[in-house]
Hints:
Elements: H1 4-13, E1 20-22, H2 23-26, E2 27-31, E3 46-49, H3 51-56, E4 67-68, E5 84-87, E6 89-90, E7 99-101, E8 111-112, E9 116-121, H4 129-135, H5 139-146, E10 149-151, E11 155-157, H6 159-162, E12 166-168, H7 172-210, E13 219-222, H8 223-226, E14 227-231, E15 244-247, E16 252-256, E17 261-268, E18 277-286, E19 290-295, H9 301-310, H10 313-317, H11 327-331, E20 334-337, H12 340-358, H13 363-382
Parallel strand pairs: 3-8, 15-18
Antiparallel strand pairs: 1-12, 2-9, 3-4, 5-7, 5-9, 6-11, 10-11, 13-20, 14-19, 15-16, 17-18, 17-19
Amino acid sequence: MVNNKIEKLTNKLCSNGVEFKELDELGIFYGGLTGKSKDDFNVGNSKYVTYMNVYSNPSVNVDIEDYVKLNAEEKQNKVEYGDILFTGSSETPDECGMSSVLTTKLSEPLYLNSFCFGLRLNDKSTFDPEFLKHLFRDESIRKQIAKTASGVTRFNVSKKRFAKIKIPVPPIAIQTEIVKILNKFTELEAELEAELEARRKQYDFYHKDLFNYKNENFEVKTLGDIYDFQYGEGNTIPTSGGTYPVYGSNGEVGSHEKYNSEDAPVIGHIGAYAGIVNWAHGKHFVTYNGVICKIKQGLNPRFGYHLLVLQDFRSKANSGSQPFVSYDMLKNTVVKIPNILIQDKIANILDKFELLTTDISIGLPAELNARRQQYEYYRNKLLTFKEYVG
């Protein structure tokens, strides 16, 4: 029943199939900002779309405070309504070329960071931008995009191969009906995400409050005093398999026959997950995309993990065009360390809170995960078209 109207439209408008076209037939590609230094992002005067904005949002978030300094005489590409933006690199080929579509009409100029690129349609009436935000995140298109990427520890999109990706071009009437259905699913997701975000804010409040040590003694140290940090090993993600899980910038990416860390945090080093702190259970191997965190004796490891999460390295990593975590950022961060009994208490409380906000087998995280799977199922069904062969 969910696609009955679409089936009728398909039979009426394109019973013999839908035309597929390569991206370079449909539009032109353009690059992001050029000639910018880190200082240009400290005091800016023009809004720009960050790497994380593109990576995280099917529709570009225009309610932003991300600025870059531009001079009047500079010739930089502006983002326009209907443009499709893509990330140029990531830790794995499956996560390269993540898309975000500008579905909002702008009242002021908007630019694109240098680690992304855009596609501007020759005929903007060909597609509904809302349709494109679903299409370019669909499994079949994502598989084509992954095949355009190559690399070692970082994978980069080949623009030449990317231009040859083929996408369906259904009639606008069909696009509109598909958007109505898929947007309902994403609206339900958004409601659940809002509820989960409220719970996370509660967790954040207690997280910060517990680290205030209002009536407790503490020592002032740097993270470099309590952790030994080093970037992970190797210039490739191990693919040979083995006993030990491999961690990159955000969770497991494979397995390996050796390990270089045990029961410890892993911090994302570069790219979309830079600054994210994950806990890796047991013996594990960390690639160059992650930071190995070895806590020194006399501290509760789980307390140390929650202390790292509190620092919000992700926000700090996103201060420039390409997210990045440096040794100096980690080592020089000043923190307060209470006695071991207080550390144990804080770790136990926050472990319980974290379970409620992240475990996809229970509560809101489980419901949200189920909704996302439902959306992906219908997106795959609705965006699968028979190709017209003339």
